[in-house]
Design brief:
Length: about 230
C-alpha cells in the first residue's frame, strides 16, 4: 500500500471506530508498517486539517472527531480537477491557505480510484504564470476576520506616508489585482479600506472589539460593481 492510500485508509479506520481510539501499535500491525511510520502519518493528517487527536492512558490511542470529517465524497475526477482550478484562483487572496486545506480534505475523502484518476488528470493540465500576479496577503491579515481581534498595523498610503494604526477588521473587498481589508480605523475614527500590499507590519492584540455591522451602503466604491459572496 502506498502512502496516499494508507493515509486514506487510516482516516477510514479511525472513522469506523470513532469515538473509540486505536493505538499506534495496533494501527502499525493493521497496515504492516512501523509505529514511527504511523506517527508520521498521523502528524501529516493533523497538519492537513484532519481532526485526529491523541487520547492518553493505557487504553488510549488516536481518535477521530467524526462530526468534523467528511464521509467518502462521490466527486468525479473532472469535478475534483474543476475545484482545484477554481481554488488556484484564490492565490494572493486572504483565503489561499484555507483553499489548500479544503482541497486536501476533499481529495482525502474521495474514493481511492477516483482520487488517483483526478491526480492523473490534474497532471495533464498546465497553467501559464501571469506576469501581473496578485500580491499575497500576510497570514495575520488573512486571518483577521476569523481571529476577531484588534490589529495594530503599519500602513503606507499611495503617497508613501507611513502611519501606525489600530483597526477593527470588518470585511474584504477583492479585485483581480489587489485585495483590500475593510476596517474601523481608530486613528481616523471612521471606516477605512486598506490595500493589503500596503500593510507593512501587523500584530494581533488581545483586545476583542465590540461588534460592528458592515452594510452594503458602507462600501461606496467609486469604480466597478460590488457583488457580495454567497455559498449558493
Amino acid at each position: 500500500m502506498n502512502r496516499t492510500d494508507r493515509l486514506y485508509a487510516l482516516v477510514e479506520e479511525l472513522r469506523a471506530v470513532a469515538p473509540r481510539p486505536r493505538s499506534a501499535r495496533w494501527l502499525a500491525g493493521r497496515f504492516e508498517v512501523s509505529v514511527r511510520t504511523i506517527e508520521r502519518d498521523i502528524s501529516a493528517l493533523q497538519q492537513s486539517g484532519v481532526p485526529v487527536y491523541a487520547e492518553p492512558g493505557r487504553t488510549g490511542g488516536y481518535c477521530l472527531d467524526k462530526a468534523r470529517t467528511l464521509p467518502p465524497v462521490n466527486l468525479t475526477p473532472d469535478e475534483a480537477v474543476a475545484l482545484a482550478l477554481a481554488l488556484r484562483r484564490l492565490e494572493g487572496t486572504p483565503f489561499q491557505a484555507a483553499a489548500g486545506s479544503a482541497l486536501r480534505k476533499l481529495v482525502t475523502a474521495m474514493q481511492v480510484d477516483d482520487a488517483a484518476a483526478a491526480r492523473d488528470l490534474a497532471g495533464r493540465i498546465h497553467l501559464l504564470g501571469d506576469e501581473g500576479t496578485t500580491p499575497s496577503v500576510p497570514r495575520m491579515v488573512a486571518d483577521a476576520l476569523s481571529t476577531r481581534r484588534v490589529l495594530r498595523i503599519g500602513y503606507g498610503d499611495r503617497e508613501g506616508a507611513a502611519t501606525m494604526r489600530e483597526i477593527e477588521p470588518l470585511g474584504y473587498v477583492g479585485r483581480a489585482t489587489h485585495w483590500y481589508l475593510v476596517a474601523w480605523c481608530r486613528l481616523r475614527d471612521a471606516l477605512r479600506v486598506f490595500r493589503t500590499d500596503r500593510i507593512t507590519s501587523v500584530s494581533v492584540t488581545a483586545e476583542v472589539p465590540a461588534p460592528r455591522s458592515l452594510r452594503s451602503e458602507d462600501l461606496d466604491i467609486p469604480y466597478g460593481v460590488v457583488h457580495q459572496l454567497t455559498l449558493s
